[in-house]
Amino acid sequence: MVIPLRGRQQWLGEALASAAAERPAEILVVEDGSSWVDAATLPAGARLLRFSPIGRSRARNEGVAAARTPYVAFLDADDVALSGRLVRQVAALEATPAAALCFGDIDAIDGKGGLLLDETAVQRERIAGLRMRGPTYESLLVDCPIYTSATTVRRDPFLATGGYDARHDAYEDLDLYLRLARTHVLVDTPGEPVSQHRRHGGNTPSDWLFAGALRVADRQLAAGLAERRSRARRLLLERRVDSLWGLGDVRGARRAALAAIRREPSLLVHPRLCKRLVASLAPTSTLAALRRRR
Question: Whose CA, among 9, 21, 184, 241, lies 20 to 30 Å from 90?
């Protein structure tokens, strides 16, 4: 199980305890530019890897590369693995030899470990939608409620596909899932959640997320991974507009919307993109208020 870490993390002990309880073959704590963890305090079977600042994507990749097992699970230092997670996810991967990644559901918790009922309910609806659609390339573009701390990968295909893109530190997970979905199978862990995802003030800022979503859309479009006149391509073009809008680049969003319509005229009947286009013509004060309500 790979746990990336940058700086002091108050919940690391809880994450380590939950990982150790799963009795993995090894736990790999990857310190990304910090050196405050004492290897002697880690659970039995854990290894500590230290690197100069490399970013969480590459930190995870280094952890997988150093692993000695065919299956590798991910757990962020502020999250918690739930009992039976590894057994269930490895079983799902072994049942589907073509699968490169297994995902499961999560519970949303607060800084003290309390269950966030509303956010967990929203997650249940999202994961149910994904399960109904199936974890295909197009389905992941519609909505991707897969959290890194709820995934286990088959090591060899993960490394062969390049792992997480080190240029991404936001939506690097979606970028990976999309690439894997083009060449491999993604499988679900049926039943109860496999991890708890902690919501707190140190989560990835929204602007980073919008910038990451924009990079993912640009990469997929530039690589031609979504066929012309496909729903996936339309979803990527819409994602570009939404990301620019979220970043406050109204002119960029307007240009992207117009370019998207020229490339895919059918987007004229897609309400969200058209709303962005019309709203981009509004006065600056109105735009600022709209962005605060995004």
Answer: 9
Q: Which residues pair with 31 in a beta bridge?
A: 5, 50
Residue with tokens 């967990």: 120
The CA distance from 36 to 54, in Å, is 17
The reply to whether 246 and 134 lie within a common domain is no
Same domain flag for 175 and 215: no
For the entire predicted model, the pTM comes to 0.87
d(CA 21, CA 81): 9
Considering the domain architecture, whether residues 101 and 57 belong to the same structural domain is answered as: yes
> What digits encode the pLDDT tens for the residues 130-174?
999 999 999 999 999 999 999 999 999 999 999 999 887 778 999
pLDDT value for 277: 82
Q: Give me the chain's average pLDDT, please.
A: 89
- Give the number of C-alpha atoms closer than 13 A to the C-alpha of residue 164, restricted to the C-beta side: 26
Q: Which of 198, 230, 258 is the last residue of a domain?
A: 198
Report the C-alpha gap between 231 and 247 in whole angstroms: 24
The reply to whether 164 and 244 lie within a common domain is no
pLDDT of residue 90: 97
Would you place residue 28 in the very low, low, confident or very high pLDDT band (cuts 50, 70, 90)?
very high
- From 198, 231, 258, give the residue that closes a domain: 198
Cα–Cα distance measured from residue 200 to residue 9, given in angstroms and rounded to the nearest whole number: 12
Range of the domain at 262: 206-292
